[in-house]
Write a structure and sequence with these properties.
The complex is a heterodimer of chains A (about 110) and B (about 400). Chain A has about 110 residues and is α+β, with helices and mostly antiparallel strands. Chain A has helices at about 25-30, 65-70, and strands at about 1-5, 15-20, 50-55, 85, 100. In chain A, strands 2-1-5-3-4 form a five-stranded mixed sheet. Chain A is globular and about 30 Å long. In chain B, helix 1 runs parallel beside helix 7 (about 295-310). In chain B, the strands form seven sheets. Chain B has a five-stranded parallel sheet with strand order 3-2-1-7-19. Chain B has a five-stranded parallel sheet with strand order 9-16-10-11-12. A five-stranded antiparallel sheet of chain B has the order 22-23-26-25-24. Chain B is built from nine helices and 26 strands. The chains are: A alpha+beta (about 110), B alpha/beta (about 400). The interface between A and B is medium-sized, with 21 and 29 residues. Chain B: This is Oxidoreductase. Chain B: Keywords: FAD, Flavoprotein, Oxidoreductase. Chain B: Its cofactor is FAD.
């Protein structure tokens, strides 16, 4: 299991454990983290699972794919250097302890 | 108001979205969510994609975990059909015999499968795909099958066909319409998707008329057409669409017309009863006509809207409909509703792997269908929502930045 902390824009945080192989979005979604909409259920179709990734973990993530890159250009909240779509990040042991900040809005 | 609270019938995407939104926005009354399937509410889109391919197990389909319902005090009543509705008495009877009273009722009854009525249609080996139970049965049957016939060229049929081809099966798509995705896509997109399936080795037959299923010992062995052609099959998947589940509403006397009729705030003809999702028909302010949408996006957003109405919001529902379908490595995304369009403008290379079709009626942009062009799709959603129609020349010009119009 991978330990993840999601921090909503208003400071509310969730400590969650999710299995390796799941996506970061699924971990949030199953546990009802509010700042993730994930309307398309993880198919990189809606850009409503936008997150800001803990800088210490950025280089442990898979590179941004072309679809994700285009979708990130269309997020509701501003795209930053550490922006990712959480449905495109598969949980691995290396990500244990990751802190993920959620934007103010997804829609 | 009594303490009966809100009862939601249907725990698909619309019903769950209503329940969650009520809680997230601070509703303190009782919330009960009734579903006719057993277990926790799950996501339907992956059933014909990741789940069918065997990439996901059942646990990944679950929408929210069990603790979520406890934490938010949403009373989940799964595995129960609602059998009758008493509008005046504000009560709902369940098949268990239990009778629930409510202050407000939300009907999120969804849609039910259209079934084929031909000889052999009830033979073993004939599958449908809408529920988790059906997806599990189909997935379990796949390992023993080499030849599969898919009846229907809509989203479900094509997504399943792609999963079957990827699993090394010999696949034939028998489609009653003249082209694939007849209700959903324009000519260029339909042709692209047909080319995609043909290129991967699937057979595609359009404009077919079914005569019946061939059977051997009660098991399906093939499909025969009226013109005499016959296609052998170990299993057959039927994906010929759905119809709104309006039974409860209709017998209770609510106004229905291929869907439960609702106003712009999701209210049915009985003011205390709302409806949302696949079961509901409403006048869409962006399209000025009655529509009924079969989509996740509408289910989720209309569910939220219904919750908003119950909390006192008065704004009309006007979300841009959008749809997606993932087949093989291709991403089809549709923003808006193209019905009635009189002009198609291609942005990108129609013969290539990436393009969008801008569909206009009288120069107004109705819909944009994108093949592997997610940025076009996302911008299109915003253009349509804002009522902005790029000129045909600008839409066709890949060097024109559509974002500049926003």
């Amino acid at each position: 299991m991978v330990k993840i902390t999601f921090v909503e824009a208003d400071g509310v945080s969730y400590d969650i454990k999710a299995p390796e192989g799941w996506s970061l979005m699924e971990a949030a979604f199953h546990n009802g983290v509010e700042g993730i909409e994930a309307e398309c259920g993880g198919a990189c179709n809606c850009a409503t699972c936008h997150v800001y990734i803990d800088e210490r973990y950025l280089d442990k993530l898979p590179p941004i794919g072309s679809t994700e890159d285009e979708m990130l250009e269309c997020t509701a909240a501003e795209r930053r250097a550490n922006s990712r779509l959480s449905c495109q990040i598969e949980l691995t042991a290396e990500l244990d302890g990751i802190v993920v900040d959620l934007p103010e809005t997804q829609i | 108001m009594s303490d009966a609270g809100i009862v939601i019938v249907g725990c698909g995407h619309a019903g769950l979205s209503t329940a969650e939104t009520l809680r997230r926005r601070g509703y303190r009354g009782r919330v009960r969510l009734i579903g006719d399937e057993a277990g926790l509410p799950y996501q339907r889109p992956p059933l014909s994609k990741q789940f069918l391919k065997g990439e996901w197990d059942q646990s990944r389909l679950i929408q929210r975990n069990a603790e979520f319902y406890v934490k938010h005090d949403i009373e989940l009543i799964p595995g129960q059909m609602a059998t009758s509705l008493d509008v005046g008495g504000r009560s709902l009877a369940l098949e268990s015999g239990e009778r629930l009273t409510w202050d407000n009722l939300v009907l999120a009854t969804g849609a039910k499968l259209k079934r084929l009525q031909v000889s052999g249609a009830d033979a073993a080996g004939v599958y449908y795909l809408r529920t988790l139970a059906q997806a599990k049965a189909l997935r379990a049957a796949l390992s023993g099958a080499t030849q599969i016939v898919v009846i229907g060229g809509g989203f479900i049929g094509l997504e399943a066909a792609a999963a079957f081809v990827d699993a090394g099966k010999s696949v034939c798509i028998l489609n009653g319409a003249d082209s694939l995705l007849p209700r959903a896509a324009s000519g260029p997109v339909a042709r692209h998707m047909a080319g995609l399936h043909l290129g991967r080795g699937a057979q595609v037959e359009n404009a077919i008329e079914l005569a019946g299923f061939d059977t051997q010992g009660g098991r399906v062995s093939g499909v025969t057409l009226r013109d005499g052609r016959s296609f052998p099959a170990d299993i057959v998947l039927v994906g010929i669409g759905v119809e709104p589940d309006t039974e409860l509403a209709q017998t209770a006397g609510l106004k229905c017309k291929d869907g439960i009729l609702i106003d712009e705030q999701c209210r049915t003809s009985a003011p205390d009863i709302l409806a949302a999702g696949d079961c509901a028909r409403f006048r869409h302010p962006l399209y000025h006509r009655l529509v009924r949408l079969e989509s996740i996006q509408n289910a989720i957003e209309q569910g939220k809207h219904a919750a908003g109405t119950l909390l006192g919001d008065t704004d009309p529902y006007r979300a841009v409909p959008w749809f997606w379908s993932d087949q093989y490595d291709t991403k089809l995304q549709i923003a808006g509703l193209a019905d009635g369009h009189d002009l198609e403008v291609i942005r990108g290379d129609e013969q290539g792997e990436r393009f969008s079709v801008f569909c206009y009626a009288r120069r107004r942009l109705l819909a944009v269908e994108s093949i592997n062009a997610p940025a076009d799709h996302m911008i299109a959603r915003r253009l349509i929502q804002s009522g902005i129609s790029p000129t045909a020349d600008d839409a066709a010009n890949p060097d024109f930045n559509l974002r500049d119009l926003l």
